[in-house]
Design goal:
Elements (H helix, E strand, L loop, with lengths): L2 H17 L4 E5 L4 H12 L8 H4 L7 H4 L5 E8 L5 H9 L5 E2 L8 H20 L4 E4 L7 H7 L4 E2 L5 E2 L7 E8 L18 H5 L5 E3 L2 E2 L5 H7 L9 H4 L2 E3 L3 H4 L26 H5 L3 H7 L9 H15 L4 H9 L6 H12 L9
Parallel strand pairs: 3-10
Antiparallel strand pairs: 1-2, 2-7, 4-7, 5-6, 8-9
Length: about 350
């Protein structure tokens, strides 16, 4: 293809992407040297916690052509997922009796939806130019999706390490198509956080240790989703009622005043997870958990971690007879992880002795 043909194709790809439901498509080159240096420092400091996969693939994560030989360009896409206005999210977070689930996980698993749309985009390209080398990624395999999105002009990486778009905030998913087409790269997005440090100040566990620096070992999203073992006791109280992920740093970001509600029905809440109480979810059996999280990103953490997280949140909730009874019924749960956190939760209530 000539440079002129590549430029024309790039413009068409962006139009097709919007027709498929993406809010924006950008194109990046393969140079991730800056991101590679940052990742190596982060790994050397051990801030990845139990996420050993972050170092498992060596330079394939930061050198796209090593992961997918022949890659010349990366098509980066973003899709909005915000299911409700931020005032409603604030109300859910401020009610200690309610279970707070990060808003990206309220609906169907986004991985499948985005992957199908990106595959359809790749098929459109193939219809236009014939067979070409490509591979689709959605938060899968060793891909540096955030640096790629910034290079593709979709937004900049904010001080909380999420990608922010000046016209759309940060409530969006990312996906990529690695391809062997020499497409013209877009202008990388410039950082516009300025002196603001609202995300740093709001973090309940002080996981954002400085501008653009995240210690995953303290992050509530990591602790409630990625971490498989016992949650450190000194971090349990700050978790509050957050049982799956945390959105605090996004909720306070001033750029999210421009965020728009998602038009995707699959991202709307399922199983009343946007309004569910801690007690109602704690009452789920493992069979109910598997049934009600079918097709949800939540299912990947499994029942044991789900109950662990709920026990911590109940330990942080205002004391009540109902909570003490629910916890006491599972005080001798056969799963050691659940049992440990349930017993801790009982110990957080002044009247816990009455139920022993």
């Amino acid at each position: 293809m000539t440079p002129a043909q590549c430029t024309e194709l790039a413009a068409e790809i962006k139009q097709w992407g919007q027709q498929l439901g993406f809010q924006q498509i950008g194109i990046a080159d393969c140079d991730l040297a800056t991101a590679e240096a940052h990742l190596q420092r982060w790994l050397a400091e051990g801030k990845q916690g139990d996420m050993h996969f972050m170092a498992r693939h060596g330079s394939k994560r930061t050198r796209p052509a090593e992961l997918v030989p022949g890659t010349l360009s990366i098509i980066s896409a973003r899709m909005d997922y915000l299911p409700e206005h931020q005032q409603a999210i604030d109300r859910a977070l401020e009610d200690p009796a309610r279970a707070f689930v990060s808003r990206y996980a309220l609906g169907r698993d986004y991985h499948k939806l985005l992957r199908k749309r990106l595959q359809r985009l790749a098929e459109r390209i193939q219809e236009r130019i014939g067979p070409f080398g490509h591979r689709v990624f959605v938060d899968s395999a060793p891909v540096m999706e955030k640096p790629l999105a910034q290079k593709a002009g979709l937004g900049w990486i904010g001080k909380h390490t999420n990608v922010i778009n000046a016209k759309a905030g940060s409530w969006f998913f990312l996906g990529e198509i690695y391809c062997d087409l020499p497409l013209p790269a877009d202008t990388p997005a410039e950082e516009h956080c300025g002196d603001c440090q609202a995300c740093i100040d709001i973090c309940p566990t002080h996981a954002i240790t400085g501008p653009f620096q995240l210690d995953a070992r303290r992050c509530i999203s990591y602790l409630t989703i990625e971490h498989k073992g016992s949650i450190p006791e000194h971090l349990r109280a700050p978790i509050g009622n957050r049982i799956y992920g945390c959105d605090d740093c996004q909720l306070v970001c001033p750029w999210n005043r421009f965020a728009r509600l998602s038009e995707e029905a699959d991202f709307l809440p399922r199983e009343d997870l946007d309004t569910a109480t801690l007690l109602s979810l704690f009452a789920w059996t493992e069979a109910e958990f598997l049934e009600r999280t079918q097709g949800s990103a939540i299912r990947r953490i499994g029942y044991s971690r789900w109950m662990r997280n709920l026990a911590v949140a109940l330990g942080n909730a205002p004391p009540s007879t109902e909570i003490l009874q629910a916890l006491s019924a599972k005080r001798d749960h056969p799963d050691p992880l659940i049992q440990e956190h349930v017993r801790w939760a009982i110990g957080q209530h002044p009247r816990h002795q009455e139920t022993k």
